[in-house]
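Task card 7
Instruction: Convert sequence to structure tokens.
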Amino acid sequence: MTRCAGQRSIEVRYAPNGVSEFGEPCLPSVVIMQMSKPESPTPSFQLTGLPASRFAHLATLDAEALARLGVSRVRATSSPGYPCRVSLVDAQIGEELFLLSYAHHDVESPYRSAGPVFVRVDAQERYLAPGEVPAYVRTRVISARAYDERHMMIAAEVCEGERVGELLERLFERPDVDYVQLHNAKPGCYSCEARRAAAAQ
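Output:
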């Protein structure tokens, strides 16, 4: 008979009929075997922000030049409330950001789309470990849109930000899901993208 106790397995062995080979009563022998701790499953997804290089030139433009591009330079008046799509954090009160329309799904598909995004001035790209979900996502209601290799939407769900990791793990169990784009569900604007962890490296 084997019993588990924490990290150990305890095996109790009984002699046949409870007696030794000399016919005397025999107590069971106990063998304790160490068991290795089960490994945590490897996260299936990795979140990525927009590349800083796409917006670096904006810092060199004056208000008139920005206006011609449809870009506004704004200052955060609350935090959270001004989520930067490059650094994947909310700007602090008083920080400057660019507000512009960006083609976050710039693909040859009926689902090609663009929308408003905030980008902090001089924003630095943030590297997130596989499975990591920042507060920038966790504190918001999120709409997840899953796409296949042809950039066609094949699934869409809404959940609390705290459950995004669990939702992404489930979506990436589907072999036809190539990537997932997250949106802030209430305003509907783009947040970030999730790729399979190996593909995001």
